[in-house]
C-alpha cells in the first residue's frame, strides 16, 4: 500500500501541472493527505469503498426514486459527475492530463464535503420511513457513482486505487 500511495503521489503531482509550466518539487505538498494531492484522491476513493462495503452496496437498486429533495452538495456532485466524459475528451485532445487531475480533485472535495455534512448510511429522518430509505439509496448510488468516476479517472492517470487506506 505504501508503494502505491508513494507512486500515486508523485504521478499525480507531475500530471496535475500544466505540461508547459515549470514545476517546483516539494515533498511536503506531494504527500499531504488533505489538499490537491494523489493521496487525497486515493483516500477519497477508499472512503467511498468503505461506505459501500458497510452498506453491502451490491444490493443497490438499479432505479432511484426521482422525488427526492436533493441537498446542494448532492446537486454539486451530480453536476460534476456529468462533466466527466467531456473532461476526459478535452484532456486527451489537448494532451493535458492536468485537466483530468483538477477535475478529480474538484470531485473529491465535493464528495468529502457531502460526506461530512450528510449521513449516508443512516440519513436523518425526513418524513416517512420509506422516504428516509429513498434518501439512503440515493446517497449510496451517488457514492457508488463518485467511486466509479474516481477509479476511472485515477486509472487513466496511471494511479492505483486502494480499497482501504
Automatic annotation (TrEMBL):
Q: Is Glycoprotein set as a keyword in this record?
A: no
Boundaries of every DALR anticodon binding domain copy: 41-165
What EC number(s) would the UniProt record show? Answer: 6.1.1.19
Q: Does the keyword Metal-binding apply?
A: no
An example Pfam family from this entry, by short name, is DALR_1
User: Single Gene Ontology BP term?
Assistant: arginyl-tRNA aminoacylation
Per UniProt, the enzyme's principal EC class comes to ligase
Q: Name one GO molecular function term.
A: arginine-tRNA ligase activity
Q: Which UniProt keywords apply?
A: Aminoacyl-tRNA synthetase, ATP-binding, Ligase, Nucleotide-binding, Protein biosynthesis
**Catalysed reaction, written as an equation:** tRNA(Arg) + L-arginine + ATP = L-arginyl-tRNA(Arg) + AMP + diphosphate
Q: Which family, according to the similarity comment?
A: Belongs to the class-I aminoacyl-tRNA synthetase family.
* Protein name as it appears in the record: arginine--tRNA ligase
Origin species, per record, is: Candidatus Shapirobacteria bacterium CG10_big_fil_rev_8_21_14_0_10_40_9
